[in-house]
Design brief:
single chain; 273 residues; alpha/beta; Rossmann fold; five-stranded mixed β-barrel; 8 helices; 31% helix; globular
């Protein structure tokens, strides 16, 4: 535990040295969703390897840089790319940046991901606000003595996303995200099983970050971009290239949603008690 927290503090020190302190909201961008950084005004880009203690991903679509700037007058830090458990990182390493953001005084985090859809009516690309999750990764980022929130996703921040979608006339579904270990796609039988207990989307990230963020005192909102229908529902084979392409197709709507939502979220992000 002490080694984990020491590494978090070392990363927080490095983030402070790069100007992260003073930001109010963090965003974590999933596969194919990195175009949002183009909406960040007055941005400064920092490669992960220039930041002491920040793990970097080798997965295509995860650029591996931190972007600082403003969106709608809100000072933000954008994590363009994340690391995953299936790359060999531990749950504590996957969530180290989230905990360090909290140490730097941020109040909220918006997690995003590309996900497979389990509802036939949701034609990709569809945006889905995550209302709850199922952790099937067999890992927890929580430290001894930390209590897990019954639901880490903040309802008030969720309503801010809903209001933003309404203001921009965007379709935003609600649903439960199933987090699996990966890196393989699920089989049709696994998809039927996931559907049977209420999952609406499935992916390989987010759940550990949401748990760690809430435990560290951050308020959490999350959005999935449904980039493909899951195995057994999709008409053909799945591929990461398809995920990337559909993410790019959804980019305009995704960016509009976050641009509209961030000032609303910032207005709500007082410390969690």
């Amino acid at each position: 535990m002490s080694a984990t927290l020491e590494r978090v503090e070392r990363l927080a020190d490095s983030l402070r040295a790069h100007g992260v302190e003073g930001a109010r909201v963090a965003l974590v961008l999933g596969s194919g969703l990195g175009a949002f950084v183009e909406r960040v005004a007055g941005s400064t880009s920092i490669p992960y390897d220039a930041i002491d203690g920040l793990p970097g991903s080798a997965v295509p679509g995860h650029a591996g840089r931190l972007v600082l700037g403003e969106v709608g007058g809100v000072r933000v830090v954008v994590q363009q790319g994340r690391v995953h458990l299936y790359e060999g990182w531990s749950a504590h390493e996957v969530t180290r940046a989230i905990r360090a953001f909290a140490r730097c005084g941020l109040r909220a985090v918006v997690l995003t991901n590309a996900a497979g859809g389990l509802r036939r009516a949701w034609t990709p690309p569809t945006l889905m606000r995550i209302t709850d999750h199922v952790n099937l990764q067999g890992r927890t980022p929580l430290l001894p003595g930390e209590g897990a929130a019954a639901n880490p996703y903040d309802e008030a921040l969720g309503r801010a996303l809903d209001d933003a979608a309404h203001a921009r006339r965007l379709r935003l579904e609600h649903g439960v995200y199933a987090g699996v270990l990966g890196p393989s796609y699920e089989t049709p039988a696994e998809i039927r099983w996931l559907s049977s207990f209420g999952a609406d989307a499935v992916g390989m990230s987010t759940v550990c970050e949401a748990q760690a963020a809430r435990a560290a005192g951050l308020r959490v909102a999350a959005v999935s971009c449904i980039t493909n229908l899951a195995a057994g529902i999709a008409p053909g084979p799945l591929s990461h290239e398809e995920v990337m392409e559909v993410g790019r197709q959804a980019s305009q709507r995704f960016c509009e949603l976050l641009e509209e939502a961030l000032p609303r979220i910032a207005g709500l992000c007082e410390p969690v008690t």
